[in-house]
Design brief:
The protein is an alpha/beta fold and about 400 residues long. It has 2 domains: about 10-50 and about 295-390, Aspartate Aminotransferase, domain 1; about 65-290, Aspartate Aminotransferase, domain 2 (3-Layer(aba) Sandwich), CATH 3.40.640.10. It has helices at about 15-20, 25-30, 50-65, 75-90, 105-115, 130-140, 160-165, 190-200, 225-230, 260-270, 280-290, 290-315, 340-350, 380-390; strands spanning about 40, 100, 120-125, 145-150, 150, 155, 170-175, 205-210, 235-240, 255, 320, 330-335, 355, 355-360, 370-375. It has a 7-stranded mixed β-sheet, with helices on both faces. It has a 4-stranded antiparallel β-sheet with strand order 11-12-15-14, covered by helices on one side. Strand 8 (about 205-210), helix 9 (about 225-230) and strand 9 form a beta-alpha-beta unit. Helix 3 (about 50-65) packs antiparallel against helix 11 (about 280-290), helix 5 packs across helix 6 and helix 12 packs parallel to helix 14. The chain is globular. It binds pyridoxal-5'-phosphate (PLP). Pyridoxal-5'-phosphate (PLP) binds near residues 44, 105, 209 and 253.
Length: about 400
């Protein structure tokens, strides 16, 4: 007799996909979605909406008929605009052949990882790290090997010898973000040069996540791999419009890659998204051409948030924050006596209605840490910090 019961759907899912934990910040925040009583400091996004001039450019582009497929690498005008922008921002010129437009920073990282990882390969990641990279590598059939930065009075420091020791013959790339999420740590140019040397010596790729490069509180731009590498180096730089142009919901980003990979990138885009939304790319052009004032505003806004939050954290005896972040949008602090960061976040959510991200999401060794996104209105941050002071007494 035929068994009419269909096989369980979940059992049919690919093993690598099943191995990725479903527990993440979005899952934690789901229960509190749309709850206006909660101050949400758990996600990596501010509370500033996309500026009107960008919205208008997107709308006008759509109304003007820019509704057809895009070139896979991005529309030429946008790629050229990006090349000119990056040439002005960094030490060395960047040609448009090196730019591929993506539907956000995440797809940019996904393309980079898909490009270099074979089944069973690994990527060395520098942690504390934004957990999405681990999920991406697993989705591609690889795994990550972690190197933890050292935390001292000067903040988070990376020892490149530890990175070299973590690499083996299946290591295809070294991934890190500078400025980092959750630490805000900026890799000094000397450390970047050492990483580049290591990559050149071993043939291992560098994937440099520079999503927060314009959100520096003490320098115009943080050091970029574009300043020190040659076009044909095995370096992939990923970036996004999400943070500095407040466009998290639009999904717009880019990769800078060697010029010889232009066609390969186009092919990969073809078989994934088939290109980034055409009219959105016109918003990107407007953001780059007319957005410098807004970028400065966002950095100042984040800096003010950092000051409010760090001043308040200084008043909580159980909080240990060795050094104030000098970039990005996060305070990543330790709580004396706390054992389980997820339980602590759930308790704080229940008692104080403040949403924080647990440290354990950001790698081993961060179980006693919490992450707070301070890119929010001063009024809300003051209220949140009063509540936290009471909760962490
Ligand atoms: C370090 C880092 N890289 C990449 C991203 C992804 O950016 P996007 O929102 O454009 O996908 C984020 C988002 O939080 C991030 O923190």
């Amino acid at each position: 007799m035929l068994n009419s019961q269909p096989p369980m759907a979940l059992d049919g899912v690919r093993d690598q996909i099943k191995s990725i934990p479903l527990d993440n910040i979005a899952a934690l925040a789901k229960s509190a979605f749309n709850n206006k009583d909660i101050i949400p400091l758990w996600f990596g996004e501010g509370d500033v909406t996309t500026p009107e001039f960008i919205g208008k450019a997107i709308y006008e582009a759509l109304c003007a008929g820019n509704s057809f497929y895009s070139h896979q690498n991005g529309i030429p005008e946008f790629r050229q605009t990006m090349a000119t922008y990056l040439t002005g921002l960094n030490v060395k010129p960047v040609e448009m052949e090196r730019i591929t437009i993506t539907s956000g920073g995440m797809p940019a990282i996904m393309l980079a990882v898909q490009m270099v990882v074979n089944q069973g390969d690994n990527i060395v990641i520098i942690d504390p790290v934004w957990p999405n990279i681990t999920g991406i590598v697993k989705m591609c059939g690889g795994h990550t090997r972690s190197v933890r930065m050292d935390l001292g009075d000067d903040g988070w420091i990376l020892d490149v010898e530890k990175v070299a020791a973590a690499c083996n013959d299946r290591t295809k790339a070294i991934f890190f973000a500078s400025p980092g999420n959750p630490t805000g740590a900026v890799l000094p140019v000397e450390v970047q040069k050492q990483l580049l040397e290591l990559g050149r010596k071993t043939g291992i790729w560098i994937i440099s996540d520079e999503v927060y490069c314009r959100m520096s509180f003490d320098q115009k731009v943080v050091p970029s791999f574009l300043d020190i590498s040659e076009p044909e180096d095995r370096v992939l730089i990923v970036n996004s419009f999400s943070k500095s142009w407040s466009m998290t919901g639009s999904r717009l980003g880019w990769v800078v890659h060697p010029p010889s990979l232009e066609a390969t990138m186009a092919m990969m885009v073809q078989y994934t998204s088939s290109g980034t939304t055409t009219y959105l790319q016109h918003g990107g052009i407007a953001a780059i051409r007319n957005g410098e004032e807004f970028v400065k505003f966002m950095t100042d806004y984040s800096r003010k948030g950092m000051e409010i939050v760090c001043d308040a954290l200084d008043e909580i005896p159980r909080v240990i924050l060795r050094k104030r972040p000098t970039a990005a949008m996060y305070a990543f602090f330790e709580i004396d006596g706390m054992k389980d960061s997820k339980k602590a976040c759930l308790d704080i959510l229940a008692s104080s209605k403040v949403g924080l991200a647990p440290g354990f999401f950001f790698g081993k060794g961060s179980e006693k840490f919490l992450r707070l996104c301070f890119c929010r209105s001063p009024d809300q941050l003051h209220i949140a910090m009063e509540r936290l002071k009471a909760a962490l007494k």
